[in-house]
Amino acid sequence: MIIRSKAPLRLGLAGGGTDVSPYSDMFGGNVLNATINLYAYCTIKPLNLPVVRVNAADAGIDTEIPFGTGPICSGAILVDGVANRVARDFGPLPCGFEITTYNDAPAGSGLGTSSTLVVCILKCFAEWLGVPLGDYELARLAYEIERKDLLLAGGKQDQYAAAFGGFNFMEFLTSDMVIVNPLRVKDWIIRELEGSMLLYFTGRSRDGAVIISEQQKAAKSGNAVAVEAMHRIKQSAVDMKLALLQGDMARFAQIIGSAWEDKKKMADAITNPMIQEAFDTAMGAGAISGKVSGAGGGGFIMLMVPPEKRVAVSEALSKLPGRVVPFQFTHEGAVSWKL
């Protein structure tokens, strides 16, 4: 028997950062995101041997350890965290196994790779063991594994995006409740948005935890400039939802640009000369606006571009170290199957 799963990565369109504690605990957060056709993958093969074989390309780990002697400690922290939490919550794993994981995008690229991979791994274990996890249960448990068990810094949106898939307006309430509102975006609007957006990978990943830590400190200390910027970013998710549903690309692009200006006020490391050069190059070739997806500091940049200017902007960016990455939006969240 072979068990496989995959989960989609996401673009954080608006509101990113307001899903991170303590801001979300103090004020509540709003996020608008959408999944794309880049994925995290997981395969599990049960073994008739007392071993666990782990091939985690994202962590650069390919190892074999004993099974049945205690918690799984392979060094691939996401695999270990999910396996040990599953064993704790749903009973001991039935036998040794081989697990392989990888991502279509590098870690630290701003597409929610780590959280999406946790969802993907958890979905694979649930398929193997016959545990019926709904979308909310899958996302919530993945969040607890990553943020509470493994103590990895970050927010809540990525797990829910990976579990649900599609365009979602998410509300993060001060009571720690999450409400996911799937958006019924018309097909012509999705096609126009795909034609009006370029995804540019800077070629450099970043340590999002450092940037997130700076944002958390700003919220805790009551830094007025940062907190007011967060309030505007939260509202931008509401405004963008309306622009998206109406197909107002001009308004959508304007919100992207304004949100980026506010985001840069949240932490010093969010932008840098490399990112600014990419923005200057794109704008000089005809792009309207843009923002970094995720925490900032590197990774992927979303650029709003008139479809007639796509070629010109792409050619201008091709002279920089990064690359333009083709993509399409997807509707499906995490899935799993058996062979």
How would you portray this structure in words?
The chain has 339 residues and is α+β, with helices and mostly antiparallel strands. The protein folds into 2 domains: 3-185 and 330-338, Ribosomal Protein S5, domain 2, CATH 3.30.230; 187-324, Alpha-Beta Plaits. 42% of the residues lie in helices and 24% in strands. The protein contains 11 helices and 12 strands. It has helices at 23-27, 77-90, 113-129, 135-149, 157-164, 187-196, 208-221, 224-246, 249-263, 273-284, 310-317; strands spanning 3-14, 29-46, 51-56, 61-66, 97-103, 167-172, 178-182, 197-201, 289-292, 300-304, 323-324, 335-338. The strands form 2 sheets. Strands 1, 2, 3, 4, 5, 6, 7 and 12 form an 8-stranded mixed β-sheet that branches. It has a 4-stranded antiparallel β-sheet with strand order 9-10-8-11. The protein is globular and about 60 Å long. The mean pLDDT is 92.
Determine the N-to-C terminus distance: 6 Å
* Morphology call: globular
| Number of spatially distinct domains | 2
Low-confidence stretches: none
The secondary-structure element order is: EHEEEHEHHHEEHEHHHHEEHEE
CATH architecture of the largest domain: 2-Layer Sandwich
- Helicity, as a percent range: 40-55%
Number of helices: 11
Tell me the structural class: alpha+beta
Kindly state the number of beta strands.
12
Write the layout of secondary structure elements.
Layout: E1 3-14, H1 23-27, E2 29-46, E3 51-56, E4 61-66, H2 77-90, E5 97-103, H3 113-129, H4 135-149, H5 157-164, E6 167-172, E7 178-182, H6 187-196, E8 197-201, H7 208-221, H8 224-246, H9 249-263, H10 273-284, E9 289-292, E10 300-304, H11 310-317, E11 323-324, E12 335-338
Parallel strand pairs: 3-5
Antiparallel strand pairs: 1-2, 1-12, 2-5, 2-6, 3-4, 6-7, 8-10, 8-11, 9-10
Helix pairs in contact: 2-3, 2-4, 3-4, 3-5, 4-5, 8-9, 10-11
